[in-house]
Write a structure and sequence with these properties.
With 208 residues, the protein is α/β, with parallel strands linked by helices. Helix content is 48%, strand content 14%. It folds into two domains: 133 residues, Rossmann fold; 68 residues, Orthogonal Bundle (DNA polymerase, domain 1), CATH 1.10.150. The longest helix is centred in the middle third of the chain and has 21 residues. The protein is globular.
Length: 208
């Protein structure tokens, strides 16, 4: 195995409570919008590209307006996460530090620019991460971004660790094995391996 690729939300941490708070602070300033988001609703949406999340939350608006709203929400989210970070799942930081001694660790997430940097800093793992990519920089889908990071680093055999149907579909597209985190937000229809806690990734990696 050449490398381990990681998702973020539902895999490394749960930021839905802080994100819901931040997004609602934005929505409260929009007199024409009565919608308020909840952590539970965000758990249903996280893992999808931001434009799909925006379309699901603001279907009554044209695409341009949807994008403006989600951009405002993400900007406020970043500001709040600096002060009120997400809940890190057990043993995530320690496990990544251990794995990084044996494998390159990369992050591919369907997030906006700057989010991966914020999360890796808050988790104290930025020095452990070899490469990362997201649509906020590349404009590509998660499956395409997995392939992009593989190609620019010369990786042939990787594991992708995530928690949603979108992660499964991205792995199908990229033709890489998918490790499903059962403790996360989603219930994908298929997977190659499954873990019940993040630290099990160490044992799994040794077996593959």
């Amino acid at each position: 195995m050449d490398a381990i690729f990681l998702d973020i939300d539902g895999t490394l941490w749960d930021s839905t409570y802080t994100v819901a708070k931040a997004w609602n602070q934005v929505l409260e300033t929009k007199e024409e919008i009565s919608l308020r988001v909840t952590p539970q609703r965000l758990k249903q949406l996280f893992g999808k590209p931001l434009y799909e999340i925006a379309a699901a939350l603001f279907p009554e608006y044209p695409h341009k307006k949807q994008q403006e709203l989600i951009d405002d929400c993400c900007s406020k989210e970043h500001d709040l996460l600096i002060r009120e970070p997400g809940i890190i799942f057990p043993k995530v930081t320690e496990t990544i530090k251990t794995l990084s001694q044996c494998y390159p660790i990369c992050i591919v997430s369907n997030c906006e620019a700057g989010y991966i940097e914020l999360v890796t800093k808050k988790l104290g793992i930025i020095s452990c991460i070899t490469d990362w990519e997201c649509p906020g920089y590349s404009g590509l889908s998660k499956g395409e971004n997995i392939r992009l990071v593989m190609e620019r680093n010369g990786y042939k055999n990787i594991l992708y660790v995530g928690d949603t149907q979108g992660d499964y579909e991205a792995c199908q597209f990229a033709q890489v094995p998918f490790v499903y985190c059962r403790y996360g937000f989603g219930q994908p229809v298929g997977y190659d391996y499954a873990i019940d806690c993040f630290s099990q990734l160490i044992t799994l990696a040794k077996k593959i």
